Amino acid sequence: MKDALHAGWYLIAFTDELTQDLTPLRLGDRRLMIARTDDQQGYGLFDATCPHRGANLAFGGELKDNCVVCPFHGRRVMLGESDKPLSVRGYPTRVFGPLVFARLTDQAEGEATFSESFPEILGDRTITPAITTEFTVPISYVVENAFDIEHFTPVHDVPRVGDMEAKLHDEGFLQIGGSFTTVEQPWIDMRMAVALQQFLGDTRAKSAQTQSGFRATAFSPTLVATSFGSTGKDPVIITAAIPTETGCQVRVSVAAFPGDPVEHIVNGSKLAMKQDGEIWNNLDPDAPTQMDERDANIIAYHSFCEEFPKVGDAAAAAPRLLQAANDA
């Protein structure tokens, strides 16, 4: 079961992964490349298929000015829309700290202004990349996870979860919020979950007293920002996924205020992802499902996803050189 590509934002890379001028990327059946650019963003996303004879420009191509020298025939291919026959399409790209985002279409009218709303949620926090991993499930399970409040107790050992309702924001993103009842702050709970289960059983869980706030904001079917805690300066966890041949690749990063320790949050995120992964990698995504009113927030998330236009999986570059020759 492959994910259909959508028109929303994807987190396509951490900047520390981009060690070359050209980095190949696959989104579904699309052959793309991330190129270093001289503009304010510093990186751009482009089609990678050479319009001359179909070579992948990201493998052996050389970036020169605003062109890529094709590794097959040495022809210069312009980056971005151009009236020249040898050119490849560029896509909207945004860079926030170490995170590189892109989308496969222009901004849709009425859609949330990602460039404004995402920084607003982060505030003055500093972003730290934490996890890059893969799972054998469709992307939907990853972002849906933030809206599946029923799973927090059996999977993550959260003693009690308050009532929460997902709502569509006026700017187009989906948001859910409420509170957990935990023993201490939630990241401490996650870090200690294994030890508590092994040595204390349910004793400490039953004595939980701390109310910890929770909020999740989905900007697209593959991108969600989640915060835990009740201080107003709590960390924000950014979880995003892109499709692979066997499932999805997931990137998680932590946004915290300068000077705040993030190691225990990163470790808590890794533990939570491991707990989820044990479920995801062993479920059958094609099995029939029976949802009811307790799944209202999951249903709301999937309804949110359906509002995003789908983008065709195959996007082979048009043979513009041959077309120009035919038109001559």
From TrEMBL:
Its cofactor is Fe cation. Signal peptide: none annotated. Pathway: Hormone biosynthesis; Steroid hormone biosynthesis; dafachronic acid biosynthesis. Gene3D superfamilies: Naphthalene 1,2-dioxygenase Alpha Subunit, Chain A, domain 1 (3.90.380.10), Rieske [2Fe-2S] iron-sulphur domain (2.102.10.10). It catalyses: cholesterol + NADH + O2 + H(+) = 7-dehydrocholesterol + NAD(+) + 2 H2O; cholesterol + NADPH + O2 + H(+) = 7-dehydrocholesterol + NADP(+) + 2 H2O. Residues 9-102 form the Rieske domain. InterPro entries: Cholesterol_7-desaturase, KshA-like_C, Rieske_2Fe-2S, Rieske_2Fe-2S_sf. Belongs to the cholesterol 7-desaturase family. Its EC number is 1.14.19.21. Its main location: membrane. This is cholesterol 7-desaturase. Homotrimer. The two-component system 3-ketosteroid-9-alpha-monooxygenase is composed of an oxygenase component KshA and a reductase component KshB. Keywords: 2Fe-2S, Iron, Iron-sulfur, Lipid degradation, Lipid metabolism, Membrane, Metal-binding, Oxidoreductase, Steroid metabolism, Transmembrane, Transmembrane helix. It is found in: Membrane.
